[in-house]
Amino acid sequence: MTYGDRPANLSREETRVRGNVRRTIDQPSILVAEDDIATRALLRAALERDGYRVRDVDNGADALTEIVRFPPDVALLDIGMPSMDGLDVTRALRKRPSTALLPIILVTARGRLEDKVAGLDAGASDFITKPFEPAELLARVRTNLRLSAALSRLENTQDVLVALANAVDAKDPLTEHHCGRVADWALLLAGLAGLDQEEREAVGYGAVLHDVGKIGIAESVLTKPGRLTDEERVRMQRHPIIGAEILQPLRLGRIVGPIVRAHHERWDGGGYPDGLRGEEIPIGARIVAVADAYDAMIHDRPYRASLSDEEARAELVSNRGTQFDPEVVDLMLSALDESPADPDGVADAYTRGLRLPRGSE
Length: 361
Hints:
Blueprint: H1 12-26, E1 29-33, H2 37-49, E2 53-57, H3 60-69, E3 74-78, H4 86-94, E4 104-108, H5 113-122, E5 126-129, H6 134-171, H7 178-192, H8 197-208, H9 219-222, H10 230-236, H11 239-247, H12 253-262, H13 283-297, H14 309-318, H15 326-338
Parallel strand pairs: 1-2, 1-3, 3-4, 4-5
Helix pairs in contact: 3-4, 7-8, 7-13, 7-15, 8-12, 8-13, 11-12, 12-13, 13-14
């Protein structure tokens, strides 16, 4: 059978029907929530004529239920609906990880600036004003679908980077799960330090990816049981540079690259690769350095057995103000006193995809 021919056991009609089903499945889906019957019918008709799959409901509570159960590609929500208005539905959707990035277009008869500000504050992506022109409606839907696809590609890129972090862990069974544990502690410390949302995001991804540059280091060096030679040490000390270079082309690179590059710098200026000192070192890198060191100390390494928690704390104290930022060490010691076994509850999207063994070992 030539490639592209229909199977011999399918009739021409069956082939046509299957092709139509496949095209229907591939079409973007739209959830329309509008309590006015006539407007809802107009929205459905305009969207279906342009090839979209449409579901519709007449109140906010049903809209929220439908979207959570089967997330569409775009949601069109009337602001003035019974049960829950469009703003309340939008706020509820933005709180859920599965719908946090869903394109939401608010449909409103209100054209006032304050109404649009309220919609933006709730988390709306766009607006369409009633009475609407079908051409404008379809243009706004297409624009939001393109934005959603771009965000999805970014998310997939982040998943690939997390997979790389896991690949580094997997090169050495003794360090498996290290990145996830470091992220747990680093996120806890970032919260205690009062960092803002963007800084916490940087710390989360920076912790997960801090050793991603080791993907470019020979396994014989990574797992060597004895002391490294001078040449091997130089090669090993390139991993922060390699990691930052891996991240540099990506959106994440702006906020995460400096942490990855600087996580082996020392407070006294004796670290690598750039010899930064004190507050020249990004705060995220100072946090990851302490979390990284503590986790490394309490787990076996090819060149030494693990230290006890008490011994690891003593090492942090002895290197306070020389290797480590003294304030971050104090935060770590405080965190250990509060939750010595598990910084539970801080793992989130930054550690997604990592195998976090805490509490299950």
